[in-house]
Amino acid sequence: MLLTTFRIDYPILRTALAHAPDIEITWERSDLTGDGTQQLLVWADGPAFGTFEAGLEADPTVKPPVRVVEFDEQRLYQLELTPEGRRASVYPTVVETGAILQDATATEKGWDIRAALPDEETLDQYHAFFTGRDFDVELKQLYEDWSPNHSSQSRFGLTDRQHEILVAAVDEGYLDIPRSCSLAELGTQFDISSNAASERFRRGSKTLIENTLSPDDQPT
């Protein structure tokens, strides 16, 4: 199981949040119905509910909201996505792939979504979903859920495929000067394209560095 955190320039509720930049949204749950309707519950925190609700009325991704619970600076809203919102929503893909949406928060700067994905192919599927719709997406964290039965590389946050390609890069001379192996040749070894090999190598390198080096390790 891969644990991931994405930062996404996601269109859902973008207009509403632009109206009220001090509001933060926290996703509570989503529901799909047999007729294709998609509803979600979200908490809104902040002082500007008037402008936020005006933004909800103008937001093309949601229908007029139902306010469910209200506190001083926190409100729970029940929202239904419009056809435009449903086209942009990743939640049906979450259900289809068997992923687990752990939490999601949003401000005017975008959405931070944390999810547990079954495997690296599912991660690629999500990446294709976002980029195919021209959403800016940043993979902020990626690591494999570790248990005592997992291989040792999991403790460094690497997936098995990332571990394989990093080891192969050393064994085949990709990191030698001069190089004696190309990314295309590494890709052929794992039956993937050179672009996929490059992305896997870069993800693995970034994860390994982040999980083995810390600011305390840097020279002063």
UniProtKB/TrEMBL annotation:
Residues 158-210 form the HTH bat-type domain. It comes from Natrinema hispanicum. Keywords: Transcription, Transcription regulation. The keyword Transcription regulation applies. Coiled coil: none annotated. This is HTH DNA binding domain-containing protein. It holds the Pfam family HTH_10. InterPro entries: BAT_GAF/HTH-assoc (IPR031803), HTH_bacterioopsin (IPR007050). PANTHER family: DIMETHYL SULFOXIDE REDUCTASE TRANSCRIPTIONAL ACTIVATOR.
